[in-house]
């Protein structure tokens, strides 16, 4: 149980922190063109869909950490199982998303952002799977390290995902306030 509590799971941002990070980004780039303007609502809807998909996964990571601190193995397992499913759903649904084609710059940035987001939630899914194994009694150091590394890499991936999505918004000339 110590490995789960020490994983930093409680420090994981929720979907609301995603908005806070994006809200502090630089001014948007003025991008003209009918195709770009027409693609803005699609991107905003997709961005909000990513946030909706991410919230259950993100919150489960913090909940696993809290349950581990209390020493509640059954609760850790239950939360981690639900978290694994939520993270897997986020991973798979983001993987099904595609970039718009309004401009080459925006398309390239969006493809990269979607891949980064997908990878972040895949790592979080793997971290939750390892947390389940630990709560179920597999307390080898290698399993604890696996969980910690997946959750830490997933956290870094989420932060990069948010940054890259903000870059797409700016490439499309979207005011970042409109993403909230």
Keywords:
mainly alpha; elongated; disordered N terminus; 0% strand; 180 residues
Description:
- The chain is mainly alpha-helical and 180 residues long.
- Helices cover 76% and strands 0% of the residues.
- The protein is built from 6 helices and no strands.
- The chain has helices spanning 2-5, 15-23, 34-69, 73-96, 104-135, 141-171.
In short:
The chain is mostly helical. The chain has six helices and no strands. It has helices spanning 2-5, 15-23, 34-69, 73-96, 104-135, 141-171.
Q: How is the topology of this model organized?
A:
Blueprint: H1 2-5, H2 15-23, H3 34-69, H4 73-96, H5 104-135, H6 141-171
Helix pairs in contact: 2-6, 3-4, 3-5, 4-5, 5-6
Largest β-sheet summary: none
Order of helices and strands: HHHHHH
Compute the number of helices: 6
Cα-to-Cα separation, first versus last residue: 37 Å
Helix/strand structural class: mainly alpha
Question: Strand-residue fraction?
Answer: under 5%
Helix content: over 70%
**Number of E strands:** 0
Rg over CA atoms, rounded to whole Å, is 18 Å
The average pLDDT value, as a whole number, equals 85
Principal-axes shape call? elongated
């Amino acid at each position: 149980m110590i490995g789960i509590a020490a994983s930093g799971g409680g420090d994981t941002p929720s979907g609301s922190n995603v908005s806070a990070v994006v809200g502090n980004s630089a001014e948007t780039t003025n991008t003209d063109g009918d195709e770009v303007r027409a693609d803005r609502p699609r991107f905003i809807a997709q961005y909000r869909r990513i946030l909706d998909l991410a919230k259950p996964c993100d919150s489960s990571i913090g909940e696993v950490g809290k349950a581990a601190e209390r020493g509640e193995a059954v609760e850790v397992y239950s939360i981690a199982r639900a978290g694994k499913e939520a993270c897997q759903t986020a991973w798979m649904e983001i993987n099904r998303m595609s970039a718009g084609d309004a401009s080459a710059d925006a398309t390239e940035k969006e493809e990269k952002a979607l891949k980064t987001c997908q990878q972040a939630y895949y790592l979080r899914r793997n971290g939750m799977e390892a947390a389940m194994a630990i709560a179920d009694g597999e307390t080898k150091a290698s399993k604890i390290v696996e969980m910690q590394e997946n959750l830490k890499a997933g956290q870094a991936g989420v932060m990069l995902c948010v940054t890259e999505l903000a870059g797409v918004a700016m490439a499309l000339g979207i005011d970042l306030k409109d993403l909230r």
